[in-house]
Design a protein that fits this description.
This protein is an alpha/beta fold. It has helices spanning 3-15, 19-26, 30-42, 59-68, 81-92, 132-142, 160-179, 184-188, 190-196, 200-209, and strands spanning 49-53, 73-78, 100-104, 117-123, 143-154, 214-220, 225-231.
Length: 232
């Protein structure tokens, strides 16, 4: 694992205990709506075998599992042991049980066969991988022909006013809130990560270069968020 990957892994292990509560508070609960939209765009259906990349504490995996039902199967993959431990604990409290298998792995080198999954989701993970093209190639490999993936993440808005609002919010609300938990550095990384993150059309181009036949990027929340929908 590269030094940058190890650094990112450490960040998410550190924030694991407060990750869910902070996300709820900072997004006013809206992240749950965006994740529901992402599952819808993934075209997951009853009985599907699906993968949720960079699953974190498992929110998106659980929504996906409810969508595919007890005849389906979801694999939640993350390289943060801290977040996976929380995901496992939370899913054990769910009744009836959800068909989720938690896997500690690197999304750049997925430990699954070729052409294995009916659909995929990814929430707030693509921006943090060390090699976006390789992540998309890895995802392409494990999806079945015709399968669709939906990738949700923060973005820099095109609108200058929204850009300024986002910058103000990240600096004065997000980092200040994280400071209360001693996690200033861990949450301060968000803004520089957005500066490096490919914009909508750039993501479409990268997906096409990875082999995806169809790629569309949808702006949501005034361009502060976006979902990349890609089909093999």
């Amino acid at each position: 694992m590269s030094d940058r990957a190890s650094e990112i892994q450490a960040i998410f292990n550190n924030i694991a205990p407060v990750y869910d509560n902070l996300n709820d508070w900072l997004s006013l609960g809206q992240h749950r709506v965006w994740k529901l939209m992402t599952v819808k765009w993934s075209q997951a259906k009853t009985g599907d075998t699906c993968i949720d990349l960079c699953c974190g504490s498992g929110d998106l995996s659980q929504i996906l599992a409810r969508q595919v039902g007890n005849t389906g199967q979801v694999f939640g993959v993350d390289f943060s042991a801290g977040l996976l431990a929380i995901a496992k604990q939370r899913s054990q409290n769910h009744y009836p049980p959800l068909a989720i298998t938690w896997v500690e792995a690197d999304v750049l080198d997925l430990p699954f066969p070729d052409n294995h999954f009916d659909c995929a989701t990814m929430g707030y993970g693509l921006r943090n991988v060390t090699d976006i093209p390789q992540c998309l190639r890895s995802l392409y490999r494990v999806l079945k022909p015709g399968a669709t993936a939906a990738i949700l993440d923060f973005h820099r808005p095109y609108n200058p006013l929204m850009q300024n609002l986002q910058q103000w919010y990240l600096k004065n609300i997000v980092v200040t809130a994280a400071e209360q938990f001693g996690l200033t550095e861990e949450y301060a990384y968000i803004s520089p990560s957005l500066d490096k993150f490919p914009q909508g059309q750039q993501q479409v181009n990268l997906a096409q270069q990875a082999g995806f036949a169809i790629a569309t990027h949808y702006q949501i929340a005034g361009g502060i968020m976006g979902v990349l929908q890609i089909t093999k």
